Predict the structure.
Amino acid sequence: MRPATALFRVAVAGQSMEPTFRDGDWLLVRRLRRPPRPGEVVVAADPREPERLLVKRVRSVAPDGVTIQGDHADPAESTDSRQFGPIPGSAVVGRPVFRYAPIGRFGLVR
Amino acid sequence: MDLRSILAPRLVAHAHCDIPCGIYDPTAATIAAQTVAKMVEKITGSTGGDDASRNTYIRSVAVKEEHAQICKKELLILWTDYFKPEHLEKYPKLHDTFWTAAKLCSKNKQSIDAKAAADLQAAVKEIADIFWATKK
């Protein structure tokens, strides 16, 4: 899945990024043209199913790929690089910059 | 078109664990281990030499075999799919406990041994306790 525009919107499904994102949050995502940096949240193609997008945080960037992980404190709540290993840098699509819904959670993404 | 449908994203970004966590549950292994113990009890308590008694005896052995295998399978699912390196850091005995429990499944197939059956129940309980502790 490759959105054509420099900015696109996604809806978060699932709990693995809590407390940063909750199920149902709406995000504005900026397409990323540079390599991802450790610590930032990214939207990336699922290495097991490229048409499916994931949202996770970058743990590390190495020659063998980008390690991504959910923010949830319980590792059982997230399927990420701990199961499927690092993903290729080219799988990273964008970086969520703004959460625009629900209204009470309006704000910049950190 | 209302504002909500204008603003709603067309794309979904998944932040899941793939398998709903409720699917992982040590209860199946616990019941299988209990069944093994119950069958050992039935086998050792069986005395009659008539056809009905022999039938019960043989069925009990077959059920013991089957449930020892179920127990092993259920333990392997927890061991390989549920538990992660983070859990191992917190419970360093995790691998040993699974190894012991899986070996006890085999021992209960090979023998009619009340102690081996009790040991299996204890090992499965230890795993179940760790499992539920990780869910807190």
User: Anything to note?
Assistant: The mean pLDDT of chain B is 90. Chain B touches chain A at residues 7-19, 21, 24, 82, 84-87, 134-135 (CB under 8 Å). The longest strand of chain B covers residues 11-14.
